[in-house]
Design goal:
This protein is of the alpha+beta class and about 550 residues long. Helices cover about 30% and strands about 15% of the residues. Helix 2 links the parallel strand 1 and strand 2. The chain is extended, with a radius of gyration of 33 Å.
């Protein structure tokens, strides 16, 4: 019996009945059909380039007879002028095996009028979905969402994509920033759960921006929809080894000591790939509190919360927001490569304990400590213990003593939690924010020049550049490498490669020796010139 093999389909055996031009025409015909339906049923004339007219579609993701469907965007643009850059063409993340569908939504007078059209592969034609009363264009806005009977009727028209269409279309009523829209499309819908990702990513962007040779690694501790937003906004990837998910329980082990009713959501690691050191930052978040008076359905409550999050991000405040969302930095610690490996190797039921406790228990160090000869990667204390391991505290003088909590790091500048509301809110309505401690003195020292780290000490001395670290007399290069007393961190496996760049160190020439060398050079120059002059005169004779 032969084993099954994965092979590419032979186009000559299974030819596609459509051409790329046909795909483009499908998008054009769908847009034209929407224009016709809006005019016939509501008497509304859809105008080209209307910023309140949205074209949502699975085109660009779903395939049609094995053909990519992104050319349908061109057809929609020809009729309506819809573009992703204008936030009016919204390709919703879908399966390549899914249905090719289109939904055109118009935001007007507090309503969200929409129509749903799909492509039927059997008849090779566009099919319009209608209600039991025969209407194709229906309101899917907040008023409909808050009416149970109406909601059931309308949701069936857009099935199975109602959640994607109505949440994204209704979120656009609040004018979300472009990066939010992209995260909606990636997540396939909008929900309160994805919303904290924007606030957390904004905190990271302001407090921990990337520099040269740096990247983000993220370890999730409290898992929910925000993960998709963080993956998209921070350019994370489990395949590239920059995203890990521990799915810890929402119990005392993840409770924030910085924010009341908050959780330690995850560990952001800002890693320098050249220096092989980084910062481990525990991010915390607390949910807002909403006044849901008059909202009778879950869909209506979710829509109000989504709008409230967008308004808050834009510097406004929803009248339904009783207590604002809060984000903060629980702690930030400089870490070595060994400590990074320990964090990334953790599991939810790890016998070493909780990974958050591990990070909180790490000693407080500065970047210069990790780049110094005694504080480099993999360095150990006098007892030979790895610094900061649970139950084995390192010997650093800056490590918190027993019973002492690590100082927290507040945000600098104006954070979303500090933005003033549109209207005064009484102290009884606001969630108290604990007073935060002073920021740790964490310098952002720039790395030494690469040519200096490569061992060009003689060149450095001639140029009056301070060496990377003082040399120990009587200790050669190999002995310093074995003892770990190197003037710069040496990545694992790189020591042999680096020897090819090293220059044998010797004392710089003294003043007398330098003068003698200059005199010899001048004499040689005079002799060469005199010889050339005599030779030229002899030829003339």
């Amino acid at each position: 019996q032969t084993k099954p093999r994965a092979v590419m389909a032979d186009p000559s055996v299974m030819p596609s009945p459509l051409t790329p031009g046909d795909i483009r025409d499908i998008g054009k015909q769908a847009a034209q059909l929407a224009v016709q339906l809006f005019r016939e049923e509501l008497g509304i004339r859809l105008e080209r380039d209307d910023p309140n007219l949205l074209a949502l579609t699975s085109a660009g993701f779903a395939r049609l007879f094995r053909l990519p469907t992104s050319l349908a965007w061109d057809g929609i643009h020809e009729v309506l002028g819809s573009r992703l850059t204008r936030r009016t063409l919204l390709p919703v993340h879908s399966s390549i095996m899914g249905t090719l569908w289109f939904s055109f939504a118009l935001l007007r007078d507090g309503k969200t009028y929409a129509v749903y059209i799909r492509y039927d592969t059997g008849t090779r034609s566009l099919v319009v979905s209608r209600t039991g009363s025969g209407n194709a264009v229906v309101d899917i806005g907040p008023e409909t969402l808050n009416n149970n009977s109406r909601l059931r009727e309308v949701s069936g028209v857009f099935s199975p994509h109602f959640s994607s269409i109505q949440t994204i279309a209704n979120a656009m009523r609040y004018n979300p920033p472009f990066e939010m829209v992209l995260s909606y499309l990636f997540h396939n819908h909008v929900c309160p759960g994805v919303s904290p990702s924007w606030l957390l990513a904004d905190l990271v962007y302001r407090e921990f921006p990337l520099g040269e040779n740096e990247k983000y690694i993220y370890v999730t501790t409290v898992n929910y929809c925000k993960e998709d937003g963080l993956i998209y906004l921070l350019n994370l990837s489990s395949g590239a080894g920059t995203y890990y998910n521990l799915r810890l329980l929402q119990d005392d082990s993840t409770r924030s000591s910085l924010i009341e009713n908050g959780r330690m959501e995850g560990i952001l690691i800002k890693w320098n790939e050249e220096l092989q050191v980084g910062q481990a930052v525990i991010l915390s978040f607390a949910w807002p509190v909403w006044d849901n008076t008059g909202l009778t359905t879950d869909a209506a409550r979710r829509e109000a919360a989504i709008g409230g999050f967008i308004m808050w991000y834009n510097g406004l405040r929803s009248p339904r927001m009783v207590a604002a969302p809060q984000v903060g930095v629980e702690t930030a610690k400089w870490i070595t490569q060994d400590e990074l490996r320990a964090i990334l190797s953790w599991s939810p039921d790890d016998p070493r304990g909780n990974v958050l406790s591990f990070v909180l228990g790490l000693p407080h160090r500065e970047l210069s400590d990790l780049l110094s000869p005694s504080g480099g990667e993999g360095s150990t204390g006098p007892s030979g213990q790895d610094p900061g391991l649970p139950e084995q505290p390192g010997s650093s003088d800056t490590e918190p003593s027993e019973g002492e909590t690590a100082p927290s790091i507040p945000e600098s500048g104006e954070s979303p939690a500090e933005r003033p509301p549109l209207e005064p809110v009484s102290s009884e309505e606001r969630t108290p924010v604990p007073e935060q401690g002073a920021r740790e003195n964490v310098p952002t020292a720039s790395p030494r020049p690469s040519w200096l780290r490569r061992g060009f000490a003689p060149v450095a001395s001639l140029l009056n550049v301070p060496s990377a670290a003082p040399e120990s007399p009587g200790v050669d290069q190999d002995e310093r490498e074995e003892s770990g007393d190197m003037p710069y961190p040496v990545p694992e496996g790189e020591a042999d490669k680096m020897r090819a760049y090293e220059v044998e160190e010797e004392e710089a020439p003294s003043g007398i020796g330098m003068a003698f060398l200059v005199l010899v050079g001048v004499a040689a120059f005079v002799l060469v010139g005199l010889g050339g002059y005599l030779l030229a005169g002899k030829r003339r004779l």
